[in-house]
Fold these 4 entries.
Entry 1:
Amino acid sequence: MTEIKSIPGLTVTLARNAQSDVIIHGFHIGARVIAGREDHEYHVTIRAAHVADFAAALGGDTAEDAWEKHHIEMVYQGETAWLRAHGIPFELSVI
């Protein structure tokens, strides 16, 4: 679990599912209103076919290694904005 200390209330994690997709899970308490709520949870899924591109764009050999080194810059830009800027397809779901 990675708590983004300079963004109060935000916790972001990266994990893989059984299909080797990368899942970025965020939980933000007291955030700006998204989907009509202050507190929200979201998942950004990068399918397995694009995981190597994701890792390379973050400057690492693996998605996990790259995430550990560079997640703050990605989160500050906004995960989906960062992925779009790097041409990496993703799926977003806000819970």
Entry 2:
Amino acid sequence: MENGQDRTAVVSNLQARIENTPDNGDLVRIPHFGISNPNIKEAAELVVVDMWFSGEIEGVNEPEDFDGSACAPWLKPALADAITAFEARLSSAIDSGRLKASAIRRDLDDRLIPEKTHVSYDHLVEWMDEWGLARAITW
């Protein structure tokens, strides 16, 4: 029994430390510790990059040496304006209930905190399908 009590104390201590760590505290509250549950900023990046690969975003041309990688270091900065606009769309969809969030955090002005509000990939894909957004990348 002593060993079981020790484990319980260790787990409780670890959970308390995780919850009190500013960067990781919310991960305890998100399904699967955030795996497959990107925050609004990450979801916006994912969708906008995907839309760019689908040809739905114009005005960003690939360099000659582009290898086709969605992780190319120039891509997200080149799409920064579209990503910022899409963060607002995702936030609006969550606020209106059209996009279900897996974890919501708000500031004192009742605005969603993009880095701490998460959506599941499944709900994000359903929402994209409703809007007819094609997925060019398998994710």
Entry 3:
Amino acid sequence: MFKKLPVVLAAATLLVTSISDSHTSLAGTCASNCGPRPLQFTPGQRIRLEVVNNTSNLIELEKIQGTRAIPLQPGQKLQFMQEDGKQPNLSLVFWDKTGSPLQAVVSKPNFATLRVEIRPTWRYPGDRSLYILNDGRVNVF
């Protein structure tokens, strides 16, 4: 009788604990709640980069480090074509002339277009660059 007492107490404890906790959770697959898929293009694919200034300030863009900055007026849209589908990693740096933080919202409106909408944000320092790796992944920093 005394040998079975610890087993009975453990089973009773588990039963009482499971009954008192009404917030049970069930495991699900990632497909049920994993969020949006990250943007990615096929490696070697020619990409059209479309940048839209959705702020009320002048934004400046620099496609390759060391080149002259390109001004982008409020509401203006600018497109860059990738010269070669085998071009190594493509980067774009952007900033607000007044120093306000920015948010880059990326989308893929069609097969070969990457749209970057630059918006104002309260998060400091905000987003400052876009990086398209040669394996097709898109990162915003």
Entry 4:
Amino acid sequence: MIANRRTFTAKNGQSDAALDLLKIEARTMSWPHGLRMYSSSISQFSLVSFEAEFDTLAQYETFWHEWNSRSTTPAFMAQWWQLVESGGKNEIFTVDVIK
């Protein structure tokens, strides 16, 4: 299993709006294993992050390709870039679960 974490810095005063927009968009998507969203508490200020798990790298690639191909994605991205700074991080981690 892999985890994909994407982290952005919200523009001044826009953290809550960015998180709200992300929640709305996330509800329209079929996440394989759900989605976790994070906002900074004790960290760099104004961070907005989300993390999703995928069974394989191929599943991750297919998921994001399908999302990028949706007709609604450009409108979401236009709103998104109004709320966050350019850039960010896109990380992929291997998940090992110890029971």
